[in-house]
Amino acid sequence: MEYDADAEIIRDAPEPPFQQLAGILRTRIQRGDWAPRRPILSETRLCEDYGLSRPTVRRAIAALVKEGRLFVVPQRGTYVADRSAPASEDESAE
């Protein structure tokens, strides 16, 4: 599902909040809100901005780490991964 980068979490949506947040963050990364190898917002800030619990935010981040869009540096933060091409082009090349 496509998410607007400026969307809010909808509590009664069919998708769980962590998937909605992952979609929003994915769109923000694609839009260029954060440059590669630069940090995204902290977990605390994401919790505050989206009204979510820390485990929910961590689950969204973990999903994006699994996709290769983010990487986590312990005690430093979460960073945008280097990507030479958008995910859709990477997937179609396989």
How many separate domains? 1
What CATH architecture would you give? Orthogonal Bundle
Q: Major β-sheet, in short? A: 2 strands, antiparallel
Tell me, what's the shape? globular
- What is the subunit arrangement here? single chain
CATH class: Mainly Alpha
Strand % is 5-15%
Radius of gyration: 13 Å
Low-confidence stretches are 87-94
Name of the CATH superfamily = Winged helix-like DNA-binding domain superfamily/Winged helix DNA-binding domain
Helix/strand order, N-terminal first: HHHEEH
Q: Mind explaining what this structure looks like?
A:
The chain has a two-stranded antiparallel sheet. Helix 1 (17-31) packs across helix 3 (54-67) and helix 2 (43-50) crosses helix 3. It has a single domain, classed as Orthogonal Bundle (Arc Repressor Mutant, subunit A), CATH 1.10.10. Residues 87-94 have low confidence and may be disordered. Helix content is 47%, strand content 9%. The chain is mostly helical.
Summarize the structure.
The protein is 47% helix and 9% strand.
Notable features of this structure?
single chain, 94 residues, mainly alpha, Arc Repressor Mutant, subunit A, two-stranded antiparallel ribbon, 4 helices, globular, disordered C terminus, HTH gntR-type domain-containing protein, transcription regulation, Bact_HTH_transcr_reg, WH-like_DNA-bd_sf
